[in-house]
Structure prediction request, 206 residues.
Amino acid sequence: MPPVRRADFFAALAYAMDLATGQSENFALRSCLLSMRLAAVAGFDVDTRRHTFHQALLRYVGCNADTHLISAFVEDEIAFRHDVARIDMVNPPEMLGALIRAIHRNPAKSGLGSALAVLQGLSAAAAVSVPVLNGHCEVARRIGVRLSLDPVVCAGLGQLYARWDGKGIPKGLAGLAITPAVRVVTLAQDAIVLADSFGMEAMRTK
Prediction:
């Protein structure tokens, strides 16, 4: 049997994360390919392209850390993750819509029970979401350390929810303070999610 390359192991982890987060088939591998093309166009040096490769495959490697919390108030946590990946997480109406859809998937809840579940979910969301998302980042960063990845890659894995406008996690991290690999991978993965969900033409306008 030929030896297993570390890249093969990362690809297997990426495939498992695609399944666990409700992403489309080969999402991480497709995003890795697109990210590497964007990195080449941007003129990234060899090290930064290597960071981009690892970031694209392992971005969501810590996202199962909170499964027990999410499944405590939604029926299908994979479907909920699928919905959340397609919205602006700092937009309250969009998050409310995702939460309502998640609760309505539970056939045991209807009428008053469904309304109460929405209210309970909203009251818990603010208290749970920030520590949960911080947990994703911290678990991903620690896995990167255990895999002996470059410290820059580990730092990037801790920035998976960072936003250019500073409204992401870690709070206040914005603009050029976000590692180049994270910026490129976020762009590539958002483009793929939107294209898969709404088509290429609609993706260009969102």
